[in-house]
Amino acid sequence: MAQVTLRNLVKKFSEEVVAVNNVNLEIEDKEFVVLVGPSGCGKTTTLRMVAGLEDISAGEIYIGDRIVNDVPPKDRNIAMVFQNYALYPHMTVYKNMAFSLKLRRTSADILGIGDLLDRKPKQLSGGQRQRVAVGRAIVRQPEVFLFDEPLSNLDAKLRVNMRAELIKLHERLDATMIYVTHDQVEAMTMGDRIVVMRNGFIQQVGPPMEVYNQPQNQFVAGFIGSPPMNFLDARLVADNGGVTVDLQGMRLPLPPQKAKGAEAYMNRNVVFGIRPEDILSTPEKKSASLAPLRATVEVLEPLGAEIILELSCQGYAFTARMDPQMRAKMHDEIEVYFDMERVHLFDPQTEQAIL
């Protein structure tokens, strides 16, 4: 396996259309890295440049210690799994995975498709077709595996199963893998590190929980997490020697450590961010960091393991994730608590994180 390095990588389709803009990234040997972002962010174009399927406008790509800018795809020692499976319809599974007999059998056993080798793609389910596509990649014994949204054509239950299979496969093969998806759940559950992209730029790189808990800007905070983080327009004001978040008259005091980091924004507008799970109904124990407020239930979505509430308070709307044992009905007024130790603040002009 090999390390993959991208240096100042640029892809221009025209002077006006820059799909990938000065991307710098080092992917370690045997690492599973996920490129994630909305449609048009440049993630698939980046993957295709690594594969050699897209010309590079500027920059360098290294696989191992070899620069591969001008190396044809077949000579890069990579294997790619596509969203649409890309199987030969006239060939059996056995022939689609064509290589040495030993490798074919080993890959088929790993993926649980050993009994399907004599079938053709039209006789397979979506999940089976995707396993064949992965098996064909395995038998190449590449230095790097590339996955381009391989699960997006599968139904929800099968996506969950295939996610688990790919995680186990990475552990078993101990391989370098680069995976592209628009699904932040896939990114969070599968990657050693995730790379969040937007408009051709990398926004943040890091382990999934680091990106989740310490987003560097408002876009990352809103894109990673489901339901997404709540964003409320606010102002920071001084109050009793501390710093308070003012939401149109509602005063939410910041804990001392948070207040210290926000002092530079005193008496300035900010964007206040809080995740749905950090809005509590009945806290286990009282704490100075819990700020109470009264809110009205606008929408209630019971999901079995949790309840999602759409709440409103003094012109603000926000989402909370609550325990399923909570008792509430539409239009009820309830007391909720913001965990101020878990809140985020963003600069409204730059969208960069303050806290």
Overall description:
This protein is of the alpha+beta class and about 350 residues long. It folds into two domains: about 5-75 and about 140-225, P-loop containing nucleotide triphosphate hydrolases (Rossmann fold, 3-Layer(aba) Sandwich); about 230-345, Nucleic acid-binding proteins (OB fold (Dihydrolipoamide Acetyltransferase, E2P)), CATH 2.40.50. It contains nine helices and 20 strands. The chain has helices at about 45-50, 95, 100-110, 125-140, 155-175, 185-190, 210-215, 220-225, 255-260; strands at about 5-10, 20-25, 30-35, 60-65, 65, 80, 145-150, 175-180, 195-200, 200-205, 230-240, 240-245, 250-255, 270-275, 280, 290-300, 305-315, 315-320, 335-340, 345. The strands form four sheets. A six-stranded mixed β-sheet has the order 6-7-8-3-9-10, sandwiched between helices. β16 (about 290-300) and β17 (about 305-315) form a beta hairpin. It is globular and about 70 Å long.
Give the tags.
355 residues, 23% helix, OB fold (Dihydrolipoamide Acetyltransferase, E2P), Rossmann fold, five-stranded antiparallel beta sheet, globular, six-stranded mixed beta sheet, alpha+beta, 2 domains
